[in-house]
Design a protein that fits this description.
Number of domains: 5
CATH topology of the largest domain: Rossmann fold
CATH architecture of the largest domain: 3-Layer(aba) Sandwich
Number of helices: 24
Number of strands: 20
Structural class: alpha/beta
Radius of gyration: 32 Å
CATH class of the largest domain: Alpha Beta
Bound molecules: adenosine-5'-diphosphate, magnesium ion
Strand order of the largest sheet: 10-11-9-12-13-8-14
Distance between the termini: 63 Å
CATH superfamily of the largest domain: P-loop containing nucleotide triphosphate hydrolases
Helix content: 25-40%
Oligomer: single chain
Strand content: 15-25%
Length: 710
Amino acid sequence: MASYDPRVSVSQPIDARLPLVQISGIGPRAVERLAHLDLHTAGDLVRHLPMRHERRLAERTIAQTTSEVHDETTNVRLRGTLARVRTRTGPRTKIEATLEDGTATARLVWFNAGWMRDKLHPGELGVAEGRAKIRQGYLELGNPRWIPEERAGSATTDASDDLRPIYPASEEIGSAEIEAIVKQILEGVCQSIEDPLPAPFRHERDLMPLADAWRAMHAPNNHDELAMARRRLAFDELLLLQLGVMMRRSQLRSRTRAVSLPCNQSIDAHIRQRMPFRLTAEQDRVIAEIVSDLAQPLAMNRLLQGDVGSGKTAVAAYCMMLAVANGHQAALVAPTELLAEQHERVLSAMLAGTDVKLRLLTGSCSEADRTAIIAGLARGTIDLVVGTHALLEEGVAFRHLALAVIDEQHRFGVRQRAVLRQKGQGELPLIPHSLVMTATPIPRTLAITLYGDLDLSTLRGKPPGRTPAITRVVDSSKAPEVYAYLRTRLDKGEQAFIVVPAVEESEQEIKDVATHMNFLANGPFRGLSISSVHGRVHRDQREATMQAFRSGVISVLVATTVIEVGVDVPNASLMVVEHAERFGLAQLHQLRGRVGRGTAASLCVFIGDSTTDDGRERLLAIASSDDGFTIAEQDLKLRGPGEVFGARQSGLAPFRVANLATDGELLRRARADAQAWIERDPELQRPESELLRRKLMATHGSALGLGDIG
Ligand code: ADP
Ligand code: MG
């Protein structure tokens, strides 16, 4: 008689939270091995999805297979007895074995796999799987998988091949063992899964029930079913994140207020008068979108994206002046000191002759300046402030901050954004409007996902009077020719940026600012006025250098990527990027955006030796397109969202199934659904939202700060 086992049997419903130790049928050794993969509960195991599925091939005899396989390499599965096993050593170890099944003999060969030798025992029965071709009249399998009989399972005689899951495994536990354990508990776990999406909702969207989806992810009957299962799980992931960002937005809206900043004709005319140029129709359109938000007593939360050089600064300046016209403060935050200095210069030129108080607050400020600025902001005697992260620091408080503009958002995490929001909450629920600008065009799918709580404005085109840069990609062996050609143009009075990856000399052969500047000054650019900037140059000197470059006193500026974002020197028409293969596509596009700002025909040369096809392809992709959106999409495909936009640093839980590069359509669907859902039930408090709410809180609650705002 079986003794009483207090553990849960695999034949009954299994709660996903149940620790694996408490399930009878999973031995303590297996539990331990699974722990190495960080799998502790039944749910962990079911969420541990296969990386892919392989066809479990139908078995045929060796004779039959030999007659079916022709010139092409084919995947086969053969059952038989290992006969001879021989090892040949030499520059490459080669193991040869023969497999017999009574109908014929096949050859199995392994190259450079000495460790296989111990796994092959003559006389052993088992299954060989792998790619086969005919050689010298024999069926030959190259580097096949050898599965001894006791683990091989029964023959699949079914005509259709079935799909076998391949799991992420570890040294302690292999895919086959994981497969066996999952098989034991899958049904039980699936039986206890409650579907958060009501049946009619699912039917309308052609989504399979959740339990079926989990079942099919592990053990699909066919590829179609697997695709449907993926779609269901991806939809849930996208929906959940969209619900999260929208709930956050709705909470911000219902629990906070912002100052309304109305505009009228007289204010508008005054602001335009201050601009050094006439705003383009595109700028007008985007400004109108923003201004209508700013008139509301609800905090604006808008992302302004526009390609490099599209003229975002003027849009920001307009809005900041509107805040001041309404008697409030505005702040502009930039990712680098260089850019903050430039913004301050542009704004102060616009405000010349007015009594608007504008200050610059960066890490380079003297202690006395810093103290004075902080006091001025708190007292309200400073109207506009431009700065870097220093502005986001503890201790900086405003008297009545109505608008915060953040330039180049992709450099800031979601968290920093949250910090700035809290500034100026003198009367608790009052928060500033926020305008986030990015020149790294974020593919729409990603923008929605990461910053789904933002409204989106897009500034298209460029202001008149600019010629896009011609881009060339060359090997480093061509560098001398590049510099010789540049010299001819520099001699005619043009100006160049030369970008190198490193500030300081290092062991690796990477060009650094000082060494490269020396090389240029004593070689190809001898006699020209040449200078350098990088992040570690002191502010006064940096400002002086930039000013000298802007005014044409310096013809060549050697720099690190500090000039990557935002730097605007319309005269500069030449750019060289050294070691271009080390930069991301979007980054190269940004760099290139520093030229092509004036009317002169600009040239941008990427010097790079890419060792891989991929690297080559990346550089060519950028050479062939001048459109930041196309390039960003390309970058997303080549590198994945985590790499491209710091999605990993965003603090949000990553997707298991959804793929932003390919699930755009599903994302739009999920977004629309989330929007409707939140409009109906903003706090997800209705009974039908209960399951979703619980899942949402568990997945994104803390990262999004849901429920703890204001
Ligand atoms: P980005 O969108 O990359 O921040 P900027 O705001 O730096 O672009 O603008 C790029 C250049 O275009 C600057 O030199 C700016 O003075 C110029 N510019 C912006 N708007 C206009 C306009 N309406 N007419 C002419 N030049 C403009
Ligand atoms: Mg800019």
